Structure formats: C-alpha cells, structure tokens
Amino acid sequence: MATAWRALGRVIRWWSRSLTGARWPRPLCAAAGTGAFSPAAITTTRRHLSSRNRPEGKVLETVGVFEVPKQNGKYETGQLFLHSVFGYRGVVLFPWQARLYDRDVASAAPEKAENPAGHGSKEVKGKTHTYYQVLIDARDCPHISQRSQTEAVTFLANHDDSRALYAIPGLDYVSHEDILPYTSTDQVPIQHELFERFLLYDQTKAPPFVARETLRAWQEKNHPWLELSDVHRETTENIRVTVIPFYMGMREAQNSHVYWWRYCIRLENLDSDVVQLRERHWRIFSLSGTLETVRGRGVVGREPVLSKEQPAFQYSSHVSLQASSGHMWGTFRFERPDGSHFDVRIPPFSLESNKDEKTPPSGLHW
C-alpha cells in the first residue's frame, strides 16, 4: 500500500511536468476501496490500464477524468480535484484571496539587524494569491503519511475552558497550483460526512455540484475564523517553508486575556537529495514586550524525511499570547545523509487579532 501511495507522487509530478502538449481528457483511476492510486492512473485510453503497480488483490477502477488545470481564473464551488503534492481526492467549497509574501522574490534590500518588529532580512511586498477551502475524501486520509493530521482547521471551544480546541476532520486549505482538476459521473464522488450537507448534485451545472444554503450560511457565520489572509514563504538551500497563520479568538483566563492563533506549515524539498528535519528553533515576540525562545526535537513529535519520492510534509500547531498581536520567526535544522546539518529559515509572520469577536466560531452548528 505504501509503495502504491508513493508511486502516486511520482505520477503526479510526471503528469504536472507533462502538461504542455498533453492529450485531454485523461482517465484518473484508483485501486477500488483503498484510496491508493498507481502509475496506471494516468493513461491516454480507458481500455488498457496496466496492473503492474496495482495493490495486491485490488481492482483498478476509473474514478474520473482529468481536466486541463486552469492557468488563469478560479475554480468554482464543487470542483473535484487531486492534490498535486499529497495525492488525496477533494472538492472545492469556496475560494479565499490571500496575500502571499514570498521572500524568494522580494526586491533586493540591505540586510538589517534582527529586531522584533522587522526580523531583519528583506522587505517583502505581498501579492494576491488564490487558496481554496476544501473537503478531503475520507478514503484517502489513512494514506496521507506526509501530514501530521488530515485536517488543517481547529477552533477554540465555545465554553469556559480557554485551552479547549476542536477540529473539523477532513477540512483543508489548498493553493491554486496544488489543484489537479477532474470530473466524475458519480453523484457522490467524495466520501465526507459534510459533502451532501454542503453540496447538491445538479447535472445542468459545470461543475455539477452547487452550494446548498447550509454551506453559504456556515461560511458566512464562521468567516472570521476560517478566513485565510496572509501566506508567508521562504526557501533556504532548496527547502521551501510556507507558513499560514490564523487568528482563533480571545479567551479570559485568571483575570487576563489570552489570544490564540493556529499556524499551518508546509516543508518542501525542491532538490533530489534526501534530508531529515531534526530540530526546531522558534522566537515568539509579544506586543506586551516579551520575547520567548522555544527549542525542541522535530515537529509535532515527528522528524520527517523529505526525499524525491515524498518531498513535502505539512503540520499545524498553535500559539497563545497575553497580548493582541505579536510576531514569530525561527529556523528548522535539517540533517543530510552524511551527518552534516544546515538551518532553514522560517519566514517571519505577524500574529494579528483584528477580527470581529462578537460571534464566536460555531463549528458544525447552523
């Protein structure tokens, strides 16, 4: 099973590089009942599907037909897709317009000494970039080994416990370039408990899944806690780090206010050399004037290996401050096969709380 799942990554990367001059449409296939894709997944004919990489005892079934990825414009609600990095099937719920601060393309600027406000490297101008709120197919979740969890969205609970969190399983944020769109004749092509509560099949539409009123109401009510506004990216020695922070809300604890954020981090190896994350080093500055240093082994209890076969790892974590804003930055230490180490910069990002807190997050309640 693991072999078949790793094979998917190779297929996707080959397929992504082969877009120019490709013949369309192309069938998308999976081993029935496994959520595992094989190199036979992308062919130019439905009739001749190779079985050499098929999981033992499984039958390869067509689950859809690939479409040409959009170079311009946005994908609509109901668009089915395959994630180009993590390989899961999903469906688009709605888009977000984020500001991407990419330090790799920042204009040249003099280096500055590190300080809590600027963190000292480059001045970065943000550009608009499209992300999507999506549902992940539950059949694929057990096979996504390069993520610490298969949900990227957590909320503060509504009751008095200021540290209580709850998560919405199978809900994710996906960048536009991560979408490999496909179509399906199945009226329920994605297995997720919210699929039929959020989307309605309408064969007259393209894509044939339209938003129900429950999805629109849920988006409107939870907008302040779901909205993706800033994305930060930086590459060091071919390791790209992408950070997406989210404000979660404020709670009172011991006669003081505690402000909470979650942040999602993706690590990507853009080279063919194998490396392993060994340590993290964070610096957290609070508007109250405190500067905290955090060091530790790995991230979320793991020390992921980034290789040509599995080049990316993604995880989410949380931070709280006794001030309404702050900053975070730091480094990840990686190890090469020869035992040498190198540090990868985590792009500095702001922790802001400029949200309307009159309506607490409501999770799955309407």
TrEMBL record:
This is DNA polymerase delta interacting protein 2. Residues 233-358 form the ApaG domain. One of its GO terms (molecular function) is DNA binding. PANTHER family: F-BOX ONLY PROTEIN 3, POLYMERASE DELTA-INTERACTING PROTEIN 2. GO terms for biological process: DNA repair; error-free translesion synthesis. InterPro entries: ApaG_domain, ApaG_sf, Hemimethylated_DNA-bd_dom, Hemimethylated_DNA-bd_sf. One of its GO terms (cellular component) is mitochondrial nucleoid. Transmembrane segments: none annotated. Pfam families: DUF525, YccV-like.
